[in-house]
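User: I'm putting together notes for a lab meeting next week and I want to include a structural view of one of the chains we've been expressing. I don't have a solved structure, so I'd like a prediction I can at least talk through. The sequence is below, exactly as it appears in our construct file.
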Amino acid sequence: MKRILRIAGFALLGFLVISTFVFLWQKSRPKVVNYKIETTTMGSIEKRTVATGKMEPRNEILIKPQMSGIISEVYKEAGETVQAGDIIARIQVVPDMVNLSSAESRVQRAQLAADQSRANYERDRKLYDNEVISREEFEKVELQYKNDQEELRAANDNLSLIRTGITQSSAKTSNTLVRSTVSGTILDVPVKVGNSVIQSNNFNDGTTVASVANLSDMLFVGKIDETEVGKLSVGMPMEITIGAVQDRKIPASLEYVSPKGVEESGAILFEMKAAMKLPDDVFIRAGYSANADIILDKRTDVLTIPESTVEFSGDSAFVYLVKSEKPQEFDRHFVKIGLSDGIQIEVMEGLKENDKIRGSEIIEQK
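Assistant: Thanks for the context. Below is the predicted structure for the 366-residue chain, given as structure tokens.
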């Protein structure tokens, strides 16, 4: 048994020695370095950047009530289309008890005065018909009667307004009816029947009953880094890619760049807005996430080479022209470069079309 273990140990040791020898021999073999040959070509180069953001309507209008109260009915839902003036909800007024009591007292006084003036009017009309009193005296009584009737009507309207927010003369245009002030699509109705709402005033923005926007006039709203904001200008074309709309690039035009940046995660970002040119067959919802592909600069019909073939030394750039392909021989050559898109770079001077230059390494073992 001991002899078998000894033989196995020697065999394992021998295997390790041979493996180490093979590994070291492979490492010591000389490497043959060849290079891929690239050819200069004519083409176009675009320098682009990407801004992330979302889709927003140009104008989102918040519909506020014109009086405080409780929502008694809601007539519209999010997603419905409305025209300016359409009723969205109805408000039930909660009357102030002091004002209500005062209005009721006013009605009672007006009713007493109206009853008295009616009796006077009917009595004096008979006297006037019998030529007992003059026309002038009768007209005075008649005027008082009409005034008291008008005061009674006004008192009843005032009581109705305090109690319900509606008068007989203004039922169709009552402030208890919350109407859309613009035409568009309802984005949200944050209130429900039974919710209390308050009107806008100097101390409060008021309760939002609905938000309405025109979804055919959409903006891309995003942010761009301070290192690239200086290259933007109003009117620049861009392409918008929306995550929810697959395989579609929607043209847009930059129309706003914020003059003030904000700091986010240690970077200074500037807000930008671009007007969309929406096709008829594409429906965009507010809040979709999107990316803007912005063309910062563009060159057409220029000489281009892979940027990886350029060697930089200080402010100068060099490439290696092919002297011989077999065996490979190269000459270091100065070039003047221009616009780069990160893959291809423009050559302004130093090369001509179809020149061959050294590319990336191809390493082979002998």
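A couple of points you could mention at the meeting. Residues 97-129 form the longest helix (33 residues). The two ends are 46 Å apart (CA to CA).

User: Perfect, that's what I needed.
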